[in-house]
Structures are given as structure tokens and as C-alpha cells.
Amino acid sequence: MRAIASINASDRPRDCELAIMVVANACSDTTVAELESYIDHPAEDAIPLVYFEEPQAGKSFALNLALRKVEGGFACFIDDDHRVDSHFLVGISTTLASHPDCGFFCGRIIPDWTGDEPDWLHDTGPYRVYPLPVPHYDPGQQSRRLTLDDNLPGGGDLVIKTDLLLRIGDFSVKLGPQGHNLMGGEDSDYVKRLLISGATLIYSPDITQYHYVDPKRLTLRFLITLSFQRSRAITLVHNPQRAPIPRYIWRKLFNYSAHILFSFSLQKKRFYLMRFAATLGEAAGFIGASK
After folding, report:
1. Phi/psi at 143 (nearest 5 deg)?
2. CA-based max dimension of the chain
3. Which residue pairs, CB below 8 angstroms and at least 24 apart, start in 199-202?
4. What is the C-alpha to C-alpha distance for residues 158 and 87, in angstroms, rounded to an integer?
5. DSSP-derived 3-state class of residue 137
6. Cβ atoms of residues 237 and 185 within 8 Å
7. What is the DSSP string of 29-91?
8. Is 61 buried (19+), middle (13-18) or exposed (0-12) by CB count in 10 A?
9. Distances 137 to 85, 96, 211 between C-alpha atoms, Å
């Protein structure tokens, strides 16, 4: 509901119609009741909302249901733990007007830091935390075209013309988060398929969202799990078929193990534990451990 509230609070362009679609994915909490309340008792000037329920747990199942329900125009993807910038909707409208022949756009995702997070999250040195427990995508202040050679966006801030979505088809149900499973990759796979199909991807810094910082994610256990799952997903995207684990993976595991054993700095030990977990995830991806 915070995500929806931020959409309603965003400045609105005058040259387009807006609607919010929510897919409630195997929800067992108050989500549906709150959506019903939004519809039955709309606030003044609230953007119209429709929702659908997808009983099969998994983000890709929810996305695929949305693809079957969306009609015309452009679909903007917003994760439920995001809030949009006050210029977000106007930024989309301006970007679309600047590129009338393009049907595929992405924007920035910035951690919604509160100042209460630990200092080590902001370390930029050689032993910095990567991947961050909060998604961060910011290619800079200049709008530009992105290709397969660039650092590509995730799915939390994409704007895609609906006929292009229908042409590309479903998100992979073998990838993506399922419940508290942290594996992603469904969005990277989709972006890659769009680009391979010949679609042009334009990055615009005017399309900005902020990702909620969950204090529960700022733990070493979470960071290790995230490193494993995200590395496994990336490997599966680029190597969808089973393959032998390359020798360099074993060398990396051995080297990281030695660093873990002989590093007496917490910062270094945390770094190498995450690298070790990421390399294990890479190995799992090669042997097709998505089941």
C-alpha cells in the first residue's frame, strides 16, 4: 500500500490515462482486503485500481498473469517494496515523448536509505559488500541507449509497450523469487530476450524509484544467501542447460576458503564469505540446480 500511495502522490502528466494493476501472489495476509478497501472507498483523485489473485507462488507466475490482463499503451513495472519519485509519472511521459519510436525503457532504482543502516553498507573500498542487500541500479544522469554489453536493469523499473510484451511472451517460471526464496533472474532473462529480439532499450534518469531498506536484510546470513541465489540465477540465465562445472570455479572456491580461514578482519571475512557463496551459486547454476 505504501507503493500504491507513492504512485498516487506522484505528479501526473496531462497527456495520458493512468491505471494501477496489482497481482496478489499467493497472499495469506491482509493484501486483498486492503485492495478491496482502496476500490470500495477511493480517496479523492485516486488512480483507478484493479487486482487479480495468482494462487501459484512465484513472481514469474504473477507477472505472467499480468501479461494476460494488460491492455494497450505501456506497462510500467513497480515492485511492491518500492516507492516512486514525485517526478516518476511525468518522467515516463516526457521520456516516451522524446522517443516516440521506442517501446522499451528503464530507469533508476535507488536504495531508500534512512541513515540507520550500518556504515559498512556504504563502503566503496576493495572489500565492499556486493551484491548489496538492497537493489541499486544507476547508470548516471544522462539518458542513453543500452545494449547487451552494458550493465542491464532488473525488472523493478521497466516501462514496456504492451504489444512488445505480448510478442516476447511469458517470464520464465524456472527463474524468479518464490516466497522467501531470493533467487531472481526472471527479469534479467526477459530483458535479454527483448534485446535479442531487436528491441531498443533507452535508459532515462527521470524514471526513478526507491527500494525499501529492510533491516532484516542487513545481516551476514542474508548476505550469504543472497550471494548464492543471485549468482545461481545469473548463471542459469546465461547457461540455461546443464554443463560441467568449469575448473576455475574449483580454484575460486579453494582461494576464497583460504582467505576466509586466514582473514582476521571482519570486513575481509564478510567479503570472502560472500564471494565463496556466490561461487557456490555459480556452480549450482552450471549443474542446473533451478529445480
Report:
1. -70, 140
2. 62
3. 199/103, 199/104, 199/164, 200/102, 200/103, 200/104, 200/145, 201/104, 201/105, 201/106, 201/145, 201/146, 201/147, 201/152, 202/95, 202/99, 202/102, 202/104, 202/105, 202/106, 202/143, 202/144, 202/145, 202/146
4. 16
5. strand
6. yes
7. SSHHHHHHHHHHSPPTTPPPEEEEEE-S-SHHHHHHHHHHH--SSEEE---TTEEE-TTHHHH
8. buried
9. 15, 20, 10
160: amino acid identity, one letter: I
DSSP bridge partners of 111? 211
Q: How many CA atoms lie within 13 A of 63 on its CB side?
A: 27
3-state secondary structure 12-26: CCCCCCCCEEEEEEC
Measured at the CA of 287, the angle between CA 283 and CA 291, to 5 degrees, comes to 110
Cell 544522469 -> residue: 141
Residue 2: what are its φ and ψ, rounded to 5°? -65, -40
List alpha helices for the chain, DSSP H.
Answer: 2-9, 31-40, 59-69, 88-98, 162-168, 186-196, 220-238, 247-262, 266-286
Amino acid 33 reads A
Q: Per-residue pLDDT for the chain (291 aa), expressed as one digit of tens each?
A: 999 999 999 999 988 899 999 999 999 899 999 999 999 998 999 999 999 999 999 889 999 999 999 988 999 999 999 999 999 999 999 999 999 999 999 999 999 998 888 888 888 899 988 878 888 899 999 999 999 999 889 888 999 999 999 999 998 888 756 655 555 678 888 999 999 999 999 999 999 999 999 888 888 888 898 888 888 877 877 776 677 888 999 999 999 999 999 988 999 999 999 999 999 988 888 887 444
Extract the C-alpha cell encoding 65.
Answer: 498473469
Question: How far is the C-alpha of 121 from the C-alpha of 117, rounded, in Å?
Answer: 7
Residue in the block written with cell 531472481: 184
